[in-house]
């Protein structure tokens, strides 16, 4: 399969994952506000796992787009974003397992989380913050994508860090806003590839598509 075709497939994976995740987080935020407990539903977590896989598979597209002027920066940024997704997947699996064995009560929500969940949350926060900042810098340096995408990565990174220090409903809302910023950044990036009259895919013909970390 030609590199240009792989790029288009990756862009569609990013677009699909980003759009579904954006809707999923918006709906989850509405239910979190209405319930007041800040806990996402099991259905929302399952959808989040599905979109994380799609985005994970599509992220190497960002490296391919920016390989001429910011390959190393983009590799580092995408690598940390992939680590963020992996940590998020493990965290969701642990939360789902915990909820299925012992339902979470308001008292449990205010107590210290299990060590495994805490470790995943720390990794997710650090990797997401670094990944968002580095990838934003890569976008500005490569000048292949519009600068607005870089600022969405920066906002997502900042909210990722802030959300770690919050609890309950505020944490859920900030985390949703953080996810929305990242989702919009990857949706915009994907659309830039697959939009009508885009010449990006054709320009990569004959080049090798870099592999994800």
From TrEMBL:
<keyword id="KW-1133">Transmembrane helix</keyword>
<feature type="transmembrane region" description="Helical">
    <location>
        <begin position="172"/>
        <end position="194"/>
    </location>
</feature>
<protein>
    <recommendedName>
        <fullName>DUF4386 family protein</fullName>
    </recommendedName>
</protein>
<feature type="transmembrane region" description="Helical">
    <location>
        <begin position="46"/>
        <end position="65"/>
    </location>
</feature>
<feature type="transmembrane region" description="Helical">
    <location>
        <begin position="144"/>
        <end position="166"/>
    </location>
</feature>
<keyword id="KW-0812">Transmembrane</keyword>
<feature type="transmembrane region" description="Helical">
    <location>
        <begin position="72"/>
        <end position="95"/>
    </location>
</feature>
<feature type="transmembrane region" description="Helical">
    <location>
        <begin position="115"/>
        <end position="137"/>
    </location>
</feature>
<keyword id="KW-0472">Membrane</keyword>
């Amino acid at each position: 399969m030609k590199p240009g075709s792989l790029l288009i497939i990756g862009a569609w994976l990013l677009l699909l994952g980003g759009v579904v995740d954006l809707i999923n987080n918006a709906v989850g935020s509405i239910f979190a506000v209405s319930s007041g407990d800040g806990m996402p539903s099991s259905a929302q977590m399952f959808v989040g796992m599905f979109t994380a896989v799609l985005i994970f598979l599509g992220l190497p597209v960002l490296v391919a787009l920016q390989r001429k002027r910011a390959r190393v920066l983009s590799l580092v940024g995408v690598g940390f974003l992939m680590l963020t997704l992996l940590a998020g997947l493990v965290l969701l699996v642990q939360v789902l397992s915990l909820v299925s064995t012992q339902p979470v009560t308001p008292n449990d929500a205010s107590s210290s989380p299990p060590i495994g969940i805490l470790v995943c949350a720390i990794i997710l926060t650090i990797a997401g913050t670094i990944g968002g900042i580095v990838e934003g810098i890569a976008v500005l340096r490569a000048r292949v994508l519009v600068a607005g995408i870089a600022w969405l990565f920066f906002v997502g990174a900042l909210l990722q860090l802030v959300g770690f220090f919050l609890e309950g409903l505020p944490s859920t809302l900030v985390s949703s806003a953080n996810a929305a910023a990242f989702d919009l950044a990857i949706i915009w990036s994907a659309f830039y590839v697959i939009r009508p009259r885009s010449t990006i895919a054709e320009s990569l013909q004959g080049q090798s598509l870099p592999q994800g970390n």
